[in-house]
UniProtKB/TrEMBL annotation:
EC number: 2.7.11.1
InterPro entries the record matches: CBD2, CBM2/CBM3_carb-bd_dom_sf, CBM2_carb-bd_dom_sf, Kinase-like_dom_sf, Prot_kinase_dom, Protein_kinase_ATP_BS, Tyr_kinase_AS
Protein name: non-specific serine/threonine protein kinase
CDD domains, per database record: STKc_PknB_like
EC primary class: transferase
Domain Protein kinase: 12-276
Keywords for the protein's UniProt record, in alphabetical order: ATP-binding, Kinase, Nucleotide-binding, Serine/threonine-protein kinase, Transferase
Length: 437
């Protein structure tokens, strides 16, 4: 048994325990060769479940060596991998800090600007890791450490997936907890870079809202099913950060920004600049359109489990049309669309669905106001609108901008959303009209 004062690998003198998780213990230690304080994580095979083979430890060691390649100011550095008396040890940067879980428990939800600032720091480290081929797999509030000077650092790249361990300074949060998994991983797929993006969105959502996007549930299987369906709880806050987080939390991995784009958007919000979202991937163009005045309705398509109606207004679409009106003459040129919108049924569940509507400035100059309107399907009610201002007259609905997203730069995009409660489980996305003001 390892004790205080022991010398590990001939150079790391253990001073005191600073944390313990499900799969090991963390020591503050002294590197006698380099005369510096380090954190030594001792992985304990004897604490593993009977059905967890020793190869998990071997894999942890291999991934630790990969993670040691990453040198970034917002990532906890892995210095060394050692073994003694059959036990593996990971030697890391010693970081006096508090995990975000502790900060949230003590102080409650953080302001949006602070969340964006911390998120941009973590995204920068994750973007560097992805660029180097390193996948984190367990981005959670318990693996985000806040230093004494208020900076964020992400811990345990790749390790927790292999060992079932939580953060090095935490209390052993179960890794892969459904609250922070991406829907595709909850559905049994292998994690990838987009799943790290989703988990970052879940982490920041939790710090902003005070609870994970899928809520909490003692029944882990029920929670896992909710995650797999992508049924996030509608956020209570509104503003540019909420808009960005909802993009990170797209159910379809192909619709999420990559980590570098996530960093750019979060940095923009933290700096009080518009989060220009035009670089985010969009679903394919509509396959057919109506010829109603000011309403060219996109065909309804299913892609990545999202029912989407693509809508272009205030003129003809610049996207490839099908059965479009006859080509205009030189004396009557086609008007360029000023405002484009896309209505999505992002996820469904018995009695309701989550709706997201993207509004895009299609002009080459800035747009200073917008309004999207549509007719509600029979029996549908709107609840928990975010990022917009709602006016309803019977079954006719109008949603306009709020202060922070009224102005969109050329090509810029914003998103609003709501929960639609209805007994109807099917049906097409309604035809909407997007107008500029």
């Amino acid at each position: 048994m390892t004790r205080e004062g022991d010398l590990v690998a001939g150079r790391y003198r253990l001073e005191r325990k600073v944390g313990r998780g499900a799969m090991g213990v963390v020591w503050r230690a002294r590197d006698e060769r380099l005369d510096r304080t380090v954190a030594v994580k001792q992985l304990l095979p004897d604490t593993m479940p009977d059905d967890a083979p020793f190869r998990s430890i071997v894999r942890a060691m291999r991934e630790a060596r990969v993670a040691a390649r990453l040198k970034h100011p917002h990532a906890v550095t892995v210095y060394d991998v050692a073994e003694q008396d059959g036990a593996p040890f990971l030697v890391m940067e010693f970081l006096p800090s508090r995990p975000l879980t502790e900060l949230l428990a003590d102080d409650g939800p953080l302001p949006a600007g602070r969340v964006a600032e911390l998120g941009a720091q973590i995204a920068s480290a994750l973007a560097a890791a992805h660029e180097d081929g390193i996948l984190h797999r367990d981005v959670t509030p318990n693996n985000v450490l806040i230093t004494g000077d208020g900076k964020a650092k992400i811990a345990d790249f790749g390790l927790s997936h292999a060992t079932g361990e939580g953060t090095m300074t935490g209390d052993g949060l179960v890794v892969g907890t459904p609250a922070y998994l991406s829907p595709e991983v909850a559905d049994g797929e292998e994690p990838g870079y987009p799943s790290d993006v989703f988990s970052l969105g879940s982490t920041l959502y939790t710090v902003l809202e005070g609870a994970p996007p899928f809520g909490t549930d003692g029944n882990q299987i029920a929670l896992l099913k909710r995650v797999a369906r992508g049924e996030i709880t509608a956020p209570r806050t509104t503003g540019p950060l909420t808009d960005v987080l909802l993009r990170l939390l797209r159910r379809d991995p192909g619709e999420r920004p990559d980590m570098a784009e996530a960093e750019r958007m979060l940095s923009a919000v933290a700096d009080g600049r518009p989060a220009i979202l035009s670089g985010t991937k969009r679903l394919p163009a509509p396959t057919r359109r109506s010829r109603l005045p000011f309403a060219i309705a996109g065909g309804v398509v299913v892609a990545g489990g999202v029912l989407a109606g693509f809508l272009v207004f205030d003129g003809d679409s610049s996207e490839a049309p099908v059965a479009a009106p006859a080509a205009p003459t030189a004396s009557a040129p086609a008007a360029s669309p000023a405002c484009e919108a896309r209505y999505e049924v992002a996820s469904r569940w018995p009695g309701g669905s989550e709706i997201r509507v993207s509004v895009r400035n299609a002009k080459d100059t800035r747009l200073t106001g917008w309004e999207v309107s549509w007719t509600l399907p029979p029996g549908t009610k709107i609840a928990n609108l975010w990022n917009g201002s709602l006016v309803q007259d019977g079954d006719r609905v109008r949603v306009s901008e709020v202060d922070w997203n009224a102005v969109l730069p050329a090509g810029g995009t914003t998103t609003f959303g709501f929960i639609a409660t209805t007994g109807d489980e099917g049906g097409d996305a309604p035809v909407a009209e997007c107008r500029t003001s």
